[in-house]
Amino acid sequence: MPRNGVILLVEDNSDDEVLVLRTLHRYGVANRVEVVRDGAEALDFLFRRGSHAGRDESSDPQVVLLDLKLPKVSGHDILRQIRADENLRPLPVVILTSSDEDRDVAQSYANGANSYVRKPVDFAEFADAVRQLGLYWVLLNRVPNGVK
Question: What's this model's pTM, rounded to 2 decimal places?
Answer without folding.
Answer: 0.85
